Amino acid sequence: MKSVITVGAGIGGLCTAIRLLKQGYKVTILEKEKEIGGKVNIKNIEGATFDLTASILMTPKIYTQIFDEVGKDYKDYFELIKIDPIYRVNYHNGDRYDFYSDLSKMVRVLEHMQEGLSIEYLNFTSKSLEKYIYSKKNFLDKPMTDINDVSISKSLKVLSQIKPFTNVNKYVENIISNKQLKEYLIFQSMYIGINPYTSSNLYTLIPAISHTYGLWYIKGGFYKYIEALKKLILELGGVIETENNVEKILIDKDKVVGVESNKGIYKSDIVVCNADYPYAITNLINKGKNNKIKKIKKEEYSCSIFIMYLGLNKKYDDLQVHNMYIGDNFKENIESPFKGKLPKSPSIYLYYPSKIDESVSGSFESILNIMVRVPNLEYKSIKWNKENIRKFRNIIINQLKNVKGLENLNKEILYESYLTPIQLKRRFNSYNGTAFGISHKLNQTTYFRPHINDENTNGLYFIGSSTHPGNGVSVIIDGSKLVCDEICKKYDNSTI
Prior knowledge:
The protein is of the alpha/beta class. Helix content is 34%, strand content 20%. It is built from 15 helices and 19 strands. The strands form five sheets. It has a seven-stranded mixed β-sheet, sandwiched between helices. Strand 11 and strand 12 form a beta hairpin. The protein is globular and about 65 Å long. The two termini are 17 Å apart. The mean pLDDT is 94.
């Protein structure tokens, strides 16, 4: 029986562990924090459970499939609730629309906004969904460890289908004539931390997926999924050790032999590294033999996030679970994080699980997460000290006065805390405090993204936001299948 050490208990490490356990590998997960989950984590305050970062669940089959693979019914582990409308969108001029995955409802809303707009929307959705299907089949579901995976003839054929070179903004603009719908679609496209005014239109697949497959909520909050994975790992015989900080991946003669942590040396045949890839390359692997550090520093990185966690003294009938506020001077403020500036009139995502789930609210009447894209720590001019956090927080609260029902939000707050790029760097070892790892520029995707296997070290594999196939919870869950499949092909010639 081959032994595996998984470095980090983020979503990728947990899902890879489950798939390897099913294949008969002996798996031990080492996690430096007290709680597992990585960035998919939780804040417990006065009985309330705030999801730390992740809150939007698309493509539910990806979440449930891993339970099917090991012969379990996911319903015995967590409860999925479908959400529709998927978003309530508020605009700075006071307009408000509910957008649906239910096509008949969505058409009615769009025709109310502008005659003929539903035709444009259907055209956009079908084209963007086609991009997703082609990308998943030809790139996302392939390991991309071999240059043959991106052969010129094959790639040209796929590129002719998905036409990825126009940026998100221009692509949407060419299809959608309504400014408000266009800004809504663009805002979703930047969910993986890209600049929609310079990045490939490939990422319009995000709103297309949201509307086609719908959005879902896990009863009790997103962290319930992490707890379900933990339960499954223990049932399959896996071992999870928390407060166990891996300090070095041990390599002998170009072969991994284990890891060294604050609790000693752990021998293993295979290491799956779920730590932040740039951090792992610069800190966990012998620097004398590591020629990837220079490349890591030259990569372009995603933006970061600022999140406010609010415990409130009232419930808000005017909010849905997922909400947006589209601010004034949209383009200028959307691009600000990629130019080293805080947005002056930010567009904002609001996550309000208390709308359908009282169990998460604890002693508060309700809880609310408020998220804004901000520059990563590469931009030294922004100081995340108490004074500047307070100023930016006030800008956000002031913007939200334009949202019906939130006019007096500042007076209704009983508890308040924040997540900044500083915490992302210190707690999760995120390079420059990025929220989404290495950026998804076209020349930093597929074969050109850090590989799931280390080409120079037998037995060393990577899973996470900065490696192929990319960031986003569902993408990383799917990526764990690629990692497991590559390990099985190498060590026992079996696939899953």
